[in-house]
Design a protein that fits this description.
Layout (H helix, E strand, L loop, with lengths): L2 H5 L1 E4 L4 H12 L4 E7 L23 H14 L3 E5 L1 H17 L6 H20 L4 E3 L5 E5 L4 E5 L17 H5 L1 E2 L7 H10 L21 H11 L9 E4 L5 E5 L22 E6 L4 E5 L5 E12 L9 E6 L7 E9 L2 E11 L6 E6 L2 E8 L1
Helix pairs in contact: 2-3, 2-7, 4-5
Length: 372
């Protein structure tokens, strides 16, 4: 391996402010760089189908973002490559997303994308074009701990932009070759840095939507995607029931619900009702008052231990059960090599099957899994 290959860094360029600022920062520091963008989804693919908007531009990984990434690379004078990963994205992210929703669970496509596609594909492509390391615009920190002999993933300086929840699936090998240059920075400083380096997109808004679901309507996407595949939406209609089994109404399909949901139930009640549980086998959706969403117990599988080895006994952690959830203190026990049970000190609201549970010890990501 040549010295230049060891030194070259491939920057994952999404076309947003953060990854563009990373490229500008590393370029200014004198690192040899190449820019990489993964083309994940054809934004025009479902446009105009029933319930879908005629245009689906302007969100994460759109063609507009590809143009922006290319312009930044040209501005910095670095090589740039667009990598077509649409087939893998559909196989590893979109199809599991559809299957999970149809089964009454609430998946997180961004975590699936990071765990199974982005870092794997980026590192593979980087090595193919002569770079041993990648840098991304994620707000996270990592370093090697000699005493533990492990790479440690930690929360960033800017807690409001913390993205470690989506990164719990990274392996030790992936962390060893990944740089997170924004981990020590606040977002306003990142925008200022982008402006200082002459990047026109310094004030570009952050993308909020899932890249392949325009308008945020999961049910409309499911219908359009299945229609494209020549499949009908499975009939999962059933009853809306109380916790005692009383039938309160009927629904058109369990794919339209997620735990904690209040709107769209089609029920009248003197007190607000929320989705408490989804029963995929019977197609029943259990509803009740907000207080019944509280629970102290959580189980998760498909585990990945990051900053610590797999525990041999109970450990104290704080657990994050959704992206905007503040990690809550809990005691975690390993049941077997792919199952944990956790007991929270205080009840948590809407622990949702299909979501990630990420385990923290102080700022470190101890590990994580998928709630069942």
């Amino acid at each position: 391996m040549s010295q230049s290959q060891k030194d070259t860094i491939a920057v994952a360029m999404s076309g947003g402010v953060d990854s563009s600022a990373v490229a500008a920062l590393l370029h200014a520091q004198g690192h040899p760089l190449v820019g990489l963008t993964l083309q994940l989804w054809n934004q025009r693919r479902l446009a105009g189908r029933e319930g879908m908007p005629p245009s689906v531009q302007g969100r994460c990984c759109s063609i507009d973002d590809v143009y922006d990434a290319r312009r930044v690379a040209e501005h910095l004078g670095i090589p740039y490559y667009l990598v077509n990963a649409q087939d893998r994205f559909e196989e590893d992210v979109v199809r599991p997303f559809v299957s999970e929703y149809l089964a009454g669970r609430t998946p997180i496509p961004c975590t699936l994308c990071n765990n199974h596609l982005k870092f794997d594909q980026l590192l593979l492509t980087a090595r193919q074009i002569g770079a041993e390391r990648i840098a991304t615009g994620h707000y996270a920190r990592n370093h090697y701990d000699e005493a533990r002999g492990r790479w440690i993933l930690s929360r960033p300086e800017d807690r409001s932009k913390d993205q470690t929840y989506f990164l719990f699936g990274l392996t030790q090998a992936q962390l060893s070759r990944t740089l997170f240059p924004l981990g020590e920075m606040q977002k306003p400083a990142v925008r200022s840095m982008a402006a200082d380096h002459g990047l026109e997109l310094a004030q570009k808004p952050d993308s909020q939507e899932i890249c392949f679901i325009p308008g945020g309507s999961y049910s409309q996407f499911l219908k359009a995607y299945l229609d494209e595949q020549g499949r009908e939406l499975p009939d999962s209609s059933g009853e809306l029931v109380s916790t005692t089994g009383e039938v309160l109404g009927h629904h058109e399909g369990i794919h339209s619900f997620t735990v904690g949901q209040r709107k769209g139930l089609g029920l009248s009640s003197p007190d607000p009702l929320y989705v408490l549980k989804i029963h995929p086998d019977s197609h029943k959706v259990e509803v009740g008052p907000d207080a019944q969403l509280l629970s102290t117990m959580l189980t998760a599988n498909r585990l990945n231990w990051v900053s610590i080895a797999e525990p041999t006994g109970p450990i104290r952690v704080s657990i994050k059960i959704r992206h905007r959830h503040e990690p809550a203190p809990a005691t975690l026990r390993v049941i077997d090599n792919d199952l944990i049970e956790a007991t929270f000190d205080e009840p948590q609201r809407a622990i949702t099957p299909g979501q990630s549970a990420v385990f923290y010890q102080d700022d470190e990501v101890a590990g994580g899994g998928w709630i069942i």
